[in-house]
Write a structure and sequence with these properties.
The complex is a heterodimer of chains A (232) and B (217). Chain A is of the alpha/beta class and 232 residues long. Chain A has helices at residues 14-26, 66-89, 108-120, 122-129, 135-143, 187-194, 221-227, and strands spanning 3-8, 32-33, 43-48, 97-105, 159-164, 174-178, 181-182, 198-204, 210-217. In chain A, helix 1 (14-26) packs across helix 2 (66-89). The longest helix of chain B has 23 residues, at 98-120. Classes of the chains: A alpha/beta (232), B alpha+beta (217).
Chain lengths: 232, 217
């Protein structure tokens, strides 16, 4: 189960706090997956008590203070993303933190759906644990995603690459597939990227301009050990 | 692909200066007895001390919404978002627990409301949101929880330091390997404001949450 509470001493009206939280949650907590299971209890709560504002100072509201509202909303979104990433890093048995970036989608919702499908594929997650550059599983997950906009995936426009993390000595991406055509295998380079704790899978759909990020981890032997015996 | 140990994540938890936490909140945590192991924190509260506090929430879209989810949504609706406290327990999710589960979640809210009124010398109706996490299909040891809220368990640990916030973060934990607590400062309207956050979760994680009132999954 995911639970979260965020408290600020900014003053924000209830309706605008709800709008900002909904926006932030969609781009943070609703963009993570450890094991693909949705709990009965998932909840994120926000409080804004205005203690940092003066006594008679008005609360931030999206209609009366739109610029302040957007600034607050974006700060909240960035903060929520940091909190959400901690959950993925602490995923049961997880040894990898993986950012799945989908670009070139017709809509944000389409990009989000493709990223979610890749992030919840058990076979992709097993390959990540095994540090196996199995891009075929990634491509397969892209191909069976039903896009919310109804746009069909065009296999001849899809590209896939692995991007090393910020601390990697060689930051250049490893192109695996370009417009549906496989690139020559460079297993040594793939191993260099996959053996690190953090990495990014980047997918280009070639269907539009929208993008989305999703955060996931690998599936390990330890995950099964933990969850084979939870109630006791 | 032989099994290998999960790497330690404890370095992801670091002390935070007390001055980084937002003004106007007090928190507490205790061992109420939901978890079997003695001394392990399993109950926490957060109270805003300012009279006009806003609250908002996003809840699971799972059709089987746990009792605390239902109660929190109702409190937010009836208060029109003017809430100012939170009570959370770990070890038992109070999910799929029928009418007794709802009664227990309301009892947690009522006990925390009473504590909030006592501490802030204020009146008012329901102002507390409720969270539970842990095993599904078991009833809460509700008397242990309400006794801890109204007794010394919670009252003796009230405070606003890093240690108090860390205790609250630990009270959220189930299979988490470290408490998840962060704080930041930023500027808005030319004023420095602070934000802090706690979350928990390690398994059964693929949230799809929305504001109260949205349809089920």
């Amino acid at each position: 189960t995911l639970l979260g509470v965020i408290a600020t001493d900014a003053g924000v009206t209830p309706r605008s706090l709800q709008s900002a939280l909904t926006y932030a949650v969609d781009r943070s907590f609703n963009s993570i997956s450890v094991d693909g299971d949705m709990s009965t209890n998932d909840t994120v709560i926000a409080f804004a008590n205005g203690a940092a504002f003066g006594d008679n100072e008005p609360e931030i509201d999206e209609e009366t203070h739109p610029e302040e509202y957007l600034q607050f909303r974006d700060e909240l979104t960035s903060f929520a993303t940091e909190l959400a990433s901690l959950v993925v890093r602490d995923g049961e048995g997880a040894t990898k933190f993986v950012t799945v970036t989908v670009e070139g989608a017709p809509t944000y919702e389409d990009a989000h759906k493709v990223a979610s499908t890749i992030s919840t594929s058990a076979l992709v997650k097993c390959a990540l644990y095994g540090e196996d550059a199995n891009w075929g599983r990634i491509l397969c997950a892209v191909g069976y995603t039903s896009l919310p906009s109804g746009t069909p995936i065009d296999p001849t426009r899809v590209s896939v690459s692995f991007v090393p993390d910020q601390g990697s000595p060689n930051r250049s991406p490893l192109q695996l597939l370009t417009n549906g055509e496989p690139e020559p295998a460079d297993e040594e380079r793939a191993s260099e990227i996959l053996e690190r704790e953090d990495l990014e899978i980047r997918v280009q759909l070639g269907l539009g301009k929208e993008s989305a990020n999703y955060y996931t981890c690998d599936f390990s032997h330890e995950y099964v050990t933990i969850n084979g015996d939870y109630r006791s | 692909n032989m099994p290998r140990p999960t790497p330690s994540k404890t370095h992801l938890h670091q002390p935070i200066p007390d001055s980084h936490f937002p003004q106007g909140y007090i928190v507490s945590s205790t061992h109420a007895g939901v978890k079997k192991k003695a001394g392990v924190l399993d109950l926490g509260i957060l109270l805003s001390t300012t009279p006009q506090t806003s609250g908002a929430a996003c809840f699971t879209r799972n059709a089987f919404k746990a009792a605390p989810v239902q109660v929190s949504a109702e409190v937010l609706k009836s208060s029109e978002g003017r809430v100012r406290s939170l009570v959370v327990n770990s070890g038992c999710a109070n999910a799929v627990t029928g009418s007794k589960g709802l009664k227990d979640a309301w009892a947690m809210a009522a006990s925390t409301d009473a504590l909030g009124r006592e501490l802030t010398q204020s009146g008012g109706g329901y102002e507390t949101l409720v969270m539970s996490t842990g095993v599904i299909g078991q009833h809460l040891p509700i008397e242990k929880i309400t006794n801890a809220i109204s007794g010394e368990g919670i009252k003796s640990n009230l405070g606003l330091s890093f240690g108090h916030w860390e205790g609250l973060a630990r009270a959220f934990m189930t299979t988490d390997t470290f408490p998840k607590l962060r704080a930041r400062k930023f500027s808005v309207r030319g004023k420095e404001v602070k934000i802090t956050g706690i979350d928990k979760g390690a398994g059964m994680i693929h949230p799809n949450m929305g504001p109260p009132g949205l349809p089920h999954a």
